[in-house]
Prior knowledge:
Layout: E1 20-21, E2 24-28, H1 34-43, H2 46-54, H3 58-81
Antiparallel strand pairs: 1-2
Amino acid sequence: MGVGVAEYPARPVDVDDHGQRPRDERSVQVTLTQEGTALRDQAQGIPAYIGSAMALDGDEFKQLRAALRRLTADVTRAAESGMSG
Protein backbone atom coordinates (compact mmCIF):
# COMPACT_ATOMS: atom_id res chain seq x y z
CA MET A 1 0.00 0.00 0.00
CA GLY A 2 1.44 3.35 -0.96
CA VAL A 3 1.22 6.46 1.14
CA GLY A 4 1.15 9.77 -0.72
CA VAL A 5 3.27 12.72 0.28
CA ALA A 6 2.10 16.21 -0.53
CA GLU A 7 4.74 18.44 -2.03
CA TYR A 8 4.26 22.14 -2.59
CA PRO A 9 6.41 24.10 -5.01
CA ALA A 10 8.29 27.00 -3.48
CA ARG A 11 7.93 30.47 -4.90
CA PRO A 12 10.05 33.49 -4.13
CA VAL A 13 8.17 35.83 -1.81
CA ASP A 14 8.80 39.56 -1.54
CA VAL A 15 9.38 40.05 2.20
CA ASP A 16 10.96 42.72 4.40
CA ASP A 17 13.57 42.21 7.16
CA HIS A 18 10.88 40.84 9.53
CA GLY A 19 9.60 38.22 7.10
CA GLN A 20 6.48 40.25 6.32
CA ARG A 21 5.14 41.05 2.91
CA PRO A 22 5.30 44.80 2.49
CA ARG A 23 1.74 44.98 1.10
CA ASP A 24 0.12 42.72 3.70
CA GLU A 25 1.30 42.91 7.31
CA ARG A 26 -0.99 40.01 8.29
CA SER A 27 1.11 37.56 6.27
CA VAL A 28 4.43 36.26 7.60
CA GLN A 29 6.73 33.82 5.81
CA VAL A 30 7.64 30.88 8.06
CA THR A 31 10.59 28.57 7.45
CA LEU A 32 11.97 25.60 9.36
CA THR A 33 15.07 25.88 11.49
CA GLN A 34 17.88 23.37 10.92
CA GLU A 35 16.49 21.36 13.83
CA GLY A 36 13.01 21.43 12.30
CA THR A 37 14.37 20.28 8.95
CA ALA A 38 16.19 17.39 10.65
CA LEU A 39 13.00 16.36 12.47
CA ARG A 40 11.00 16.50 9.23
CA ASP A 41 13.59 14.31 7.53
CA GLN A 42 13.46 11.78 10.39
CA ALA A 43 9.65 11.66 10.27
CA GLN A 44 9.25 11.15 6.51
CA GLY A 45 9.15 7.36 6.75
CA ILE A 46 6.55 7.20 9.53
CA PRO A 47 3.39 7.15 7.33
CA ALA A 48 4.73 4.29 5.20
CA TYR A 49 5.77 2.36 8.33
CA ILE A 50 2.32 2.75 9.87
CA GLY A 51 0.69 1.75 6.58
CA SER A 52 2.70 -1.45 6.33
CA ALA A 53 2.14 -2.26 10.02
CA MET A 54 -1.65 -2.12 9.47
CA ALA A 55 -1.37 -4.97 6.95
CA LEU A 56 -4.51 -3.89 5.07
CA ASP A 57 -5.03 -4.33 1.36
CA GLY A 58 -6.07 -1.31 -0.70
CA ASP A 59 -9.83 -1.84 -0.35
CA GLU A 60 -9.60 -2.46 3.40
CA PHE A 61 -7.56 0.70 3.81
CA LYS A 62 -10.10 2.75 1.83
CA GLN A 63 -12.97 1.37 3.94
CA LEU A 64 -11.13 2.14 7.18
CA ARG A 65 -10.27 5.65 6.02
CA ALA A 66 -13.92 6.30 5.07
CA ALA A 67 -15.13 5.02 8.46
CA LEU A 68 -12.60 7.19 10.32
CA ARG A 69 -13.63 10.25 8.30
CA ARG A 70 -17.30 9.60 9.14
CA LEU A 71 -16.40 9.16 12.81
CA THR A 72 -14.41 12.39 12.82
CA ALA A 73 -17.25 14.28 11.15
CA ASP A 74 -19.82 12.86 13.58
CA VAL A 75 -17.73 13.69 16.65
CA THR A 76 -16.99 17.18 15.34
CA ARG A 77 -20.66 17.80 14.59
CA ALA A 78 -21.66 16.59 18.08
CA ALA A 79 -19.02 18.78 19.74
CA GLU A 80 -20.12 21.82 17.75
CA SER A 81 -23.76 21.30 18.67
CA GLY A 82 -22.90 21.01 22.37
CA MET A 83 -24.12 17.44 22.80
CA SER A 84 -22.64 15.53 25.71
CA GLY A 85 -22.94 11.80 25.43
